[in-house]
From TrEMBL:
Residues 112-174 form a coiled coil. Keywords: Coiled coil. This is Lipoprotein. The keyword Coiled coil applies. It comes from the Bacteria.
Length: 181
């Protein structure tokens, strides 16, 4: 039940901390989803520089063997549209955590992994659509250029046709004048 609430809170974008307030420091691993919720909500409200600082801090803690730092980094990397958001790094961190066995929030990890996979799939679809749009835009430009070129050719041919008709008229007039003498 608690995991369902956490999932709903993560997906709904709940209340964040006031600007300038730092994220709560959570020492050690915990089974408390409230602690992870508070951390996630706090990092959502951070500006770009604060997020970068928090990533650097969590990387230092992880290098010192901090278990919580790995989940903190996964949460930081999973932030959508942020300065530090990187779904691939988040997925890598979550996979490492799920294989670790030390963490007792397996449901949370699975939920985050599923969300990241879905987001990465949507990002790939968006990239594919943008690429197709760019290709179709280029094709449209080429077709417009081809159409313009064809119109110019049609105009040139119509002018030649008019000139040929004028020449034909002159020839017919000369024949009439020449036969009439």
């Amino acid at each position: 039940m608690t995991l369902v609430l956490l999932a709903l809170m993560l997906l709904s974008g709940c209340k964040t901390l006031p600007l300038g307030e730092r994220a709560p420091v959570i020492d050690g691993m915990t089974d408390s989803t409230e602690g992870w919720q508070a951390y996630y909500l706090a990092i959502q409200s951070m500006d770009e520089q604060s997020l970068r600082d928090e990533v650097a801090n969590q990387q230092k803690l992880q290098a010192q063997g901090g278990s919580a730092a790995r989940l903190h980094l996964a949460l930081l990397y999973s932030l959508p549209e942020s300065a530090v958001g990187d779904p691939a790094l988040a997925r890598k961190a979550l996979r490492a955590l799920s294989q670790d066995g030390e963490i007792q929030l397996a449901g949370l990890l699975k939920l985050l992994m599923d969300q990241l996979e879905a987001r990465m799939g949507l990002q790939q679809q968006l990239a594919d659509l943008q690429s197709r749009l760019q290709q179709q835009t280029q094709q449209l430009k080429e077709q417009k250029h081809d159409n313009l070129s064809l119109k110019e050719q049609i105009n040139a041919l119509e002018q030649q046709l008019q000139q040929l008709k004028a020449i034909e008229q002159n020839i017919l007039k000369r024949e009439v004048v020449g036969n009439g003498n």
